[in-house]
Write a structure and sequence with these properties.
Helix content is 39%, strand content 14%. The chain is α/β, with parallel strands linked by helices. 42% of the residues are buried.
Length: 307
Amino acid sequence: MSGFSHIPVLGAEAVAMLQPRDGGVYLDGTFGGGGYTRAILDAADCAVVAIDRDPAAIARGREMEKLYAGRLRVVEMRISEIDGLELNAIDGAVFDFGVSSYQIDDPARGFSFRQDGPLDMRMGDAGPTAADLVNTLPEDELADIFYEFGEEKASRKIAKAIVARRAAEPFARTADLAYVIRGQVRPDKSGIDPATRSFQALRIAVNEELSDVSAALTQAASLLAPGGRLVAVSFHSLEDRIVKQAFAAATGRGPGASRHDPAGLLTVSRPSFTLITKSPVAPGEAEIAANPRARSARLRAMERLTP
């Protein structure tokens, strides 16, 4: 049962925002280790539909289904496929975007450069791997990935070094790629490994994470019943920006039309949602001390208004 000891980042805050109630139906859009699902089911006599694209997470979910018989359904799918669940309505949804600790800590998954492993990085078991990208993409496309998804200033130097090296021998291992990247990026005062941003960028590209986040928020919000809440936990600025902009649009806080734009003369419809978090919620010092990976987490939440 050690698979159910997972403590989710900002878990208490997320469940408090969600406000599970007896008889409610909730979506855990990123099951992972099942921490949010378990907390929701323990908080009220409710039901949870949990999804994940990772077969290993689904296997953990099957065991949890036995503990919460009749109250939990675990489905293997991407978060961009929520519409395929064919749910009529839900009373709340929670997302913990990004890679899970289970994936990071398993060298065989190839997410981390801290332990050598195959250069994979897939959250599921289909599609191109990180090795496929670094060994086949043109130099300019690789540079764009490192710059756009990793905000890496040395993106072009890194891409050039990768292309030069792969001409002699293709990349297959995480340690090998990290070594080449470190040769192009100077360590900075932050102490962050020079390969961090590039590995993040490749992971995002391999899994199409940002487009999935946007689709997931749209689809989950459309399913919320009046009073239903959507809670999203992000771990880097690119994810958080998508969440912030989506919530702003849904709550009528997006940029207004210019007075020179005819659209500004149109009647603005009443927003469908209201923000619960005026600013993002961050982990406290105790949580960061217990789990340093939580330090960059930011939680945002909104609620569907009654028509």
